[in-house]
Design brief:
five-stranded antiparallel β-sheet; 93 residues; 2 helices; alpha+beta; 28% helix; SH3 type barrels
């Protein structure tokens, strides 16, 4: 299973953005994102690529869903979705 992880774009240089994922900053490629992004936008990251810009009106709900997933499954080895999200945050580069 593979999930994208939402993050906030901090800065952009050419086709690479520095993106903040719950305090973890990673470089993310912008080559395939569905529409242009600017600093302050939220994107959905998958294996180091922004695959979608999250609409501003959806950001709060999207972040709450992920935060709930991570909070309710903290340390749970049996929840594959939470493990995937944590792995994506740790491995995005």
């Amino acid at each position: 299973m593979c999930l994208g992880v939402p993050g906030r774009v901090i800065s952009i240089h050419d086709y690479t953005a520095v993106v903040d994922f719950w305090g973890v900053r990673k470089d993310v490629r912008l080559d395939i994102v569905d529409e242009p992004v600017v600093p302050g936008d939220y994107i959905l990251n998958h294996v180091g690529f922004a695959i979608r810009r999250i609409a501003p009106e959806s950001v709060a709900e999207t972040l709450e869903l992920y935060e709930m997933l991570l909070r309710e499954n903290a340390g749970g080895e049996d929840d594959l979705m939470a493990l995937d999200v944590r792995g994506e945050i740790a491995g995005a580069s």
